[in-house]
Amino acid sequence: MSQEIQNLEPKALWNNFANLNAVPRPSKKEERVVAFIKDFGEKLGLEVIEDAVRNVIIRKPATAGMENRKPIVLQGHLDMVHQKNADTVFDFEKQGIEMYVDGDWVRAKGTTLGADNGLGVAAIMAVLESTTIAHPAIEALFTIDEETGMTGAMNLQAGVLQGQILLNLDTEEDDEIDIGCAGGVDVTAEAEYDEEETPEHSIGYQITVKGLKGGHSGMDIHKGLGNANKIMNRLLFDGFDNFGLQISEIQGGSLRNAIPRESVAKVIIASVYDEAFVFDMQQIVNEIKAELKTTEPNLEISFEKLKKAPAKVMPSMAQYYFVRSMAAAANGVHRMSADFENLVETSNNIAKVSLGKGKLTIQCLTRSSVESAKFDLANELRSAFELMGCEVEISGSYPGWAPNPDSAILKTLVSIYEKLNGEKPKVVACHAGLECGILGGIYPEMDMISFGPTIHGAHSPDERASISSSQKFWEFLVEVLASIPVK
């Protein structure tokens, strides 16, 4: 564990975060972190339960004098998004996250930090091991696979939890108290095509889009950030229309919940068009950079001539439909909420495009706080992709969390926040997917709220956690635990 991380305050929070970050914990591969968190609870002599899908529940009795307070659930998810810069050599399945302090921020070296939701998990761990923090009876619920399907929350069984109040610690601005969130659904388009031989007198190019900020496909979708897959398609669209460009392969983006930062394509053109193609492409690059100069100042688009042209390419007619379907497919903010100011209602992230060797896959994550709007946009995408001949699957749907402005625990938290900070918090709904909507369907009588420390750049290698905000969050959490109302 880094000495500089060990020395941060509050030590209980940061030491547990560092210990957690030493354990590889990719979504759907949580075996090691599940074993880690179970061992943590067992060493404390607490009741530890692992359910059928590997969620972990640790129970801690109320501290003296708090036995008459409502029992609570402290909830966070164990998995983290794995993203790294292209030039970073790192194996997420074998290595712990390498952290460092940068002023008021904790960052990782070229990778995601895992503060989403590692800081929330670490805070729960710190409460469980504390002998001085006053609290009611606690059930610590550590879910798995939040980032790629929320299957942990979706498969939690009714009747397992006895808590009456749930505190979700997965919000990413310390002045916000969250009372609602968007739901989501995966849209996956797949097609096969017969490759054809590259024509004679062709030359190959590798087109690379990189340097984009990326980010959380819910919380950052409104920021006007570049999507590498859409940028690449603009280049391919123009090159195809004007020079007969043909695609050999594309690899763009990685995870559904991360705005894609990079895309690489290998293409061919007739050698006679070489000079004109490079000139035309540079004009388009200049236009795209001018459009995104404020939000994406580090965008790079390069064209590297290949020593040897690819042997096989996508047929022209299949490519005609592909680039047009990609151009038509919605990406980014689709509709703003009419009920909450400055809240995105519905959006889509064209997250991953993989093309080559006769196969095409396009992966999207569609979000909305309105269920009917979520599926309407999913069907809009389905239509765009089916018109090019794709088989489209709509799957993995999870519900949003309907805001309850009359929540009793909300009133308690607002009062405590104002007492500690001298101002009212922002009571918000967010465009990210929180597990509260799913858990609320299983435990409809449970009062739920979400809060957390300030984390910026989640789901990207620019992810960073504020040190001062973590201190503020910790003080708030401790006070909340001491103020849970009586049964």
Walk me through what this model shows.
A hairpin with a 7-residue loop joins strand 18 (332-336) and strand 19. The chain has 12 helices and 25 strands. The mean pLDDT is 96. It has 2 domains: 3-182 and 400-482, Zn peptidases (Aminopeptidase, 3-Layer(aba) Sandwich); 185-398, Alpha-Beta Plaits. The longest helix is centred in the middle third of the chain and has 18 residues, at 274-291. It has 487 residues and is of the alpha+beta class. It is elongated. 50% of the residues are buried. Strands 9, 11, 13, 15, 16, 18, 19, 20 and 21 form a 9-stranded antiparallel β-sheet that branches. A 6-stranded mixed β-sheet has the order 1-2-6-3-7-23, covered by helices on one side. A 4-stranded antiparallel β-sheet has the order 4-5-25-24. Residues 208-294 form the Peptidase M20 dimerisation domain. This is Cytosol nonspecific dipeptidase. InterPro entries: Peptidase_M20, Peptidase_M20_dimer, Peptidase_M20C. Keywords: Hydrolase. Pfam families: M20_dimer, Peptidase_M20.
